[in-house]
């Protein structure tokens, strides 16, 4: 089970709650793929049955926002939009990006990068362009993944004739 939360106080409260209901084995702090993580080993015994699990609690992460959140394109024209990835707390690492268009034809999309590095600077931007090929309404979703964390942001695009 993976828990990701913000702020860190919520993590502390979650661990205290788990310790109340489970027998606490031990907690191990480690740096995993550039992130501060805690492995919390917990177990519960009921009669002759014992269940043990490891909860991985990751401190830090990233968010994705987009500007503008919608576009209106004349068929054949191109416009740009920007995704901004922002790290929080102690997250550092590579975020792999994947863009998906709701309908496979009718809108051509290209982005400046398929991955970004979030480090001390704290933010990264990816500029994308959309060209309207066929009339219709589309959604472009950019998903950023840095295992096991994944976030998405979307742009609504309307393509129309003059």
Structure notes:
- The protein has 1 helix and 13 strands, in the order E-H-E-E-E-E-E-E-E-E-E-E-E-E.
- The chain has 162 residues and is mainly beta.
- It folds into 2 domains: 58 residues; 99 residues, Immunoglobulin-like, CATH 2.60.40.
- A hairpin with a 2-residue loop joins strand 2 and strand 3.
- The longest helix is centred in the first third of the chain and has 14 residues.
Query: End-to-end distance, in Å?
Result: 52 Å
> What value does the Rg take, in angstroms?
21 Å
Q: How many domains make up the coordinates?
A: 2
Helical run tally: 1
What is the residue-mean pLDDT, rounded to a whole number? 78
Binned, the helix content reads under 10%
Uncertain stretches of 5 or more adjacent residues: 1-13, 17-27
Strand content: over 45%
Number of strands: 13
Strand order of the largest sheet: 6-13-12-8-10
Find the structural class using helix and strand composition. mainly beta
CATH fold-level name of the largest domain:
Immunoglobulin-like
Query: According to CATH, what is the class of the largest domain?
Result: Mainly Beta
